[in-house]
Write a structure and sequence with these properties.
322 residues, Porin, 13-stranded antiparallel beta sheet, two-stranded antiparallel sheet, globular
Length: 322
């Protein structure tokens, strides 16, 4: 009987030892799992960390608000943009301070080389279709973000921007008969000269020549000289404020025959203020301006009204680059 009791005691001790070993193994496995999960979370956090856009202030996006910047797209890269402009704040609460009135523009840009960018777009306002090219002739050639270096922060960048727009409305909405297809066309040529003052501030001058094929009077010039400027101030890798201004500045221009013709200079310049939000893949640009048109040949030359609160309108751009 003592022998059977000894055997039972030995079996009980072995069972308890086995259970304790299993518990220890389970605890070790739990620690291993927790360490693996923590390591996975740290790895995921590292992989999704925000990576700011290119260092140069000029290369955050092709457009400041409405105006084009001097730099283009790197070769092989694309940029898609969607713009919205609403009615004036002065329309009141009944129209949600302009939000009930909306025009949009959508376009696509492509970098054909390190210095040449082209693009097309379509605007619902006046049913404008347009195309452009931009050639950067001064400054370091555009590079992708992983090739950007800090030595471009203070350089001067200059580009030639050329745009042609086509009014695709019904001909009766454009002019009386006789109607010519060229009545639909407008042209813009701009020299953009920009400089990064430091790693936070960018300023630029934009002298332009606008050619309008169809004018109201025979004494009115088809050519309009416009002077403009823009700026961008960065607060962080994610946020910046922007400003634009443009206005015709010559009251008369020579015609092909040599005769001087008058230019209708608007009382108030086109002006806009903006706030930019950068993410790893998108740029969101919020703005207020006195212009509803988003096409250069229109908002640069037309009378947009004063820059007072009742005449201002909200707008935004969404930019996606890949």
């Amino acid at each position: 009987m003592r022998k059977n009791f000894s055997i039972s005691l030995i079996c009980l001790l072995l069972t308890q030892s086995g259970l304790q070993a299993g518990v220890d193994v389970q605890r070790a496995d739990s620690v291993t799992v927790r360490e693996a999960l923590n390591q996975s979370a740290q790895t995921h956090q590292f992989n999704t960390k925000y990576i700011p856009p290119a260092l140069s202030l000029e290369r955050k996006s092709l457009r400041i608000i409405n105006m084009q910047g001097a730099a283009g797209l790197p070769k092989g890269e694309w940029e898609m943009f969607i713009q919205h402009r609403f009615g004036t704040f002065g329309t009141g609460a009944y129209n949600w301070y302009g939000l009930d009135q909306s025009y949009m523009r959508i376009g696509l840009d492509a970098g054909l080389s390190e210095r040449l960018t082209v693009g097309v777009s379509r605007s619902s306002m006046n049913k404008i279709a347009d195309g452009y090219f931009k050639y950067q002739f001064k400054g370091k050639a555009t590079r992708s973000a992983d090739k950007e270096t800090s030595d471009n922060k203070s350089e001067v960048t200059a580009a030639w921007y050329s745009n042609v727009s086509i009014n695709t409305q019904a001909r009766a909405n454009i002019s009386q008969e006789p109607f010519y297809y060229t009545n639909r066309l407008r042209f813009v040529n701009t020299i953009i000269i920009s400089k990064n003052i430091n790693d936070r501030l960018l300023i630029a001058l934009t002298p332009s020549l606008v050619h309008v094929n169809l004018v109201d009077l025979a004494t009115e010039s088809n050519d309009i000289a416009v002077m403009g400027a823009y700026g961008r101030m960065k607060f962080s890798d994610r946020y910046a404020v922007t400003a634009e201004i443009q206005k015709p500045f010559l009251s008369s221009m020579p015609s092909p025959s040599g005769a001087m013709k008058t230019v209708n200079i608007p009382t108030d310049p086109y002006m806009a203020l903006g706030f930019e939000i950068y993410t790893a893949k998108h740029v969101f640009q919020l703005s207020v301006s006195n212009a509803q048109s988003m096409n250069e040949s229109y908002y640069m030359t037309q009378n947009n009204g004063s820059f007072e609160p009742s005449n201002l309108r909200f707008g935004f751009n969404i930019v996606r680059r890949w």
